[in-house]
Amino acid sequence: MAYIFESEAFAQAIKLYRKNKKITQQVLADELLIARPTINLLENQKVKPTREQIEIICTKINQPISNFFHQEQVKPLLYMMGNINSFNDKETLIRMLERINIRNRYYLLNRRAN
Fold it and tell me: pTM for the full model?
Protein backbone atom coordinates (compact mmCIF):
# COMPACT_ATOMS: atom_id res chain seq x y z
CA MET A 1 0.00 0.00 0.00
CA ALA A 2 1.12 3.52 -0.68
CA TYR A 3 0.25 6.78 0.97
CA ILE A 4 -1.08 9.76 -0.94
CA PHE A 5 -0.23 13.30 0.13
CA GLU A 6 -3.30 15.51 0.60
CA SER A 7 -2.19 18.81 -0.95
CA GLU A 8 -5.56 20.46 -0.43
CA ALA A 9 -5.71 19.62 3.28
CA PHE A 10 -2.12 20.78 3.72
CA ALA A 11 -2.82 24.07 1.93
CA GLN A 12 -5.96 24.67 3.99
CA ALA A 13 -4.11 23.94 7.23
CA ILE A 14 -1.47 26.55 6.39
CA LYS A 15 -4.14 29.12 5.50
CA LEU A 16 -6.12 28.37 8.67
CA TYR A 17 -3.02 28.67 10.82
CA ARG A 18 -2.20 32.06 9.31
CA LYS A 19 -5.79 33.22 9.69
CA ASN A 20 -5.96 32.16 13.35
CA LYS A 21 -2.61 33.78 14.12
CA LYS A 22 -3.48 36.83 12.00
CA ILE A 23 -0.17 36.71 10.19
CA THR A 24 0.80 37.25 6.59
CA GLN A 25 2.51 34.81 4.28
CA GLN A 26 5.68 36.87 4.71
CA VAL A 27 5.63 36.56 8.50
CA LEU A 28 5.13 32.80 8.29
CA ALA A 29 7.82 32.50 5.64
CA ASP A 30 10.26 34.44 7.82
CA GLU A 31 9.49 32.23 10.83
CA LEU A 32 10.02 29.07 8.76
CA LEU A 33 13.02 30.39 6.83
CA ILE A 34 11.14 29.69 3.59
CA ALA A 35 10.68 32.16 0.75
CA ARG A 36 7.28 33.89 0.76
CA PRO A 37 6.52 32.81 -2.84
CA THR A 38 6.94 29.20 -1.69
CA ILE A 39 4.27 29.68 0.98
CA ASN A 40 2.00 31.17 -1.68
CA LEU A 41 2.61 28.27 -4.07
CA LEU A 42 1.96 25.73 -1.30
CA GLU A 43 -1.26 27.45 -0.22
CA ASN A 44 -2.47 27.51 -3.82
CA GLN A 45 -1.36 23.92 -4.46
CA LYS A 46 0.90 24.95 -7.33
CA VAL A 47 3.82 22.92 -6.00
CA LYS A 48 4.23 19.84 -3.84
CA PRO A 49 6.16 20.47 -0.64
CA THR A 50 9.46 18.77 -0.03
CA ARG A 51 9.81 16.33 2.82
CA GLU A 52 11.67 18.96 4.82
CA GLN A 53 8.97 21.57 4.16
CA ILE A 54 6.27 19.16 5.32
CA GLU A 55 8.19 18.47 8.52
CA ILE A 56 8.89 22.10 9.44
CA ILE A 57 5.43 23.34 8.50
CA CYS A 58 3.68 20.56 10.41
CA THR A 59 5.82 21.32 13.44
CA LYS A 60 5.04 25.04 13.19
CA ILE A 61 1.28 24.60 12.73
CA ASN A 62 1.19 21.87 15.38
CA GLN A 63 -0.28 19.21 13.11
CA PRO A 64 0.91 15.61 12.82
CA ILE A 65 2.29 14.73 9.41
CA SER A 66 -0.16 11.83 9.24
CA ASN A 67 -3.05 14.31 8.97
CA PHE A 68 -1.99 15.00 5.41
CA PHE A 69 -1.70 11.47 4.06
CA HIS A 70 -4.22 8.79 3.25
CA GLN A 71 -3.62 5.20 2.39
CA GLU A 72 -4.11 4.32 -1.23
CA GLN A 73 -6.32 1.30 -1.75
CA VAL A 74 -4.72 0.21 -5.02
CA LYS A 75 -1.05 -0.65 -5.18
CA PRO A 76 0.63 1.73 -7.63
CA LEU A 77 2.22 -0.96 -9.77
CA LEU A 78 -1.03 -2.88 -10.07
CA TYR A 79 -2.80 0.34 -11.05
CA MET A 80 -0.18 1.05 -13.67
CA MET A 81 -0.35 -2.48 -15.05
CA GLY A 82 -4.13 -2.25 -15.27
CA ASN A 83 -3.84 0.92 -17.33
CA ILE A 84 -0.86 -0.04 -19.45
CA ASN A 85 -3.06 -0.44 -22.55
CA SER A 86 -4.24 3.14 -22.26
CA PHE A 87 -0.72 4.58 -22.42
CA ASN A 88 -0.32 6.26 -25.75
CA ASP A 89 3.06 7.85 -25.30
CA LYS A 90 6.29 7.69 -23.39
CA GLU A 91 5.49 10.84 -21.36
CA THR A 92 2.42 9.22 -19.78
CA LEU A 93 4.48 6.25 -18.65
CA ILE A 94 7.17 8.54 -17.24
CA ARG A 95 4.57 10.54 -15.29
CA MET A 96 3.09 7.35 -13.84
CA LEU A 97 6.52 6.14 -12.72
CA GLU A 98 7.25 9.53 -11.14
CA ARG A 99 3.95 9.39 -9.23
CA ILE A 100 4.81 5.94 -7.91
CA ASN A 101 8.22 7.18 -6.79
CA ILE A 102 6.71 10.22 -5.03
CA ARG A 103 4.08 8.09 -3.28
CA ASN A 104 6.71 5.71 -2.02
CA ARG A 105 8.80 8.60 -0.65
CA TYR A 106 5.80 10.04 1.22
CA TYR A 107 4.97 6.56 2.53
CA LEU A 108 8.47 6.22 3.96
CA LEU A 109 8.30 9.73 5.43
CA ASN A 110 4.98 8.95 7.09
CA ARG A 111 6.30 5.68 8.53
CA ARG A 112 9.36 7.45 9.90
CA ALA A 113 7.20 10.16 11.49
CA ASN A 114 5.00 7.67 13.36
Answer: 0.64
Distance of CA 88 to the CA centre of its chain: 28
Round to the nearest angstrom and report the end-to-end CA distance of the chain: 16
Q: What residue segments make up the domains of the chain, in order of their start?
A: 3-113
Going by C-alpha positions, the residue among 96, 106, 88 that lies closest to residue 5 is 106
**pLDDT single digits (tens) 67-98:** 998 877 656 555 555 555 555 666 777 777 78
**CATH homologous superfamily for 3-113?**
lambda repressor-like DNA-binding domains (1.10.260.40)
- Residue among 103, 102, 16, 22 nearest 63 (CA): 16
For 72, other C-beta atoms within 10 Å of its C-beta total: 14
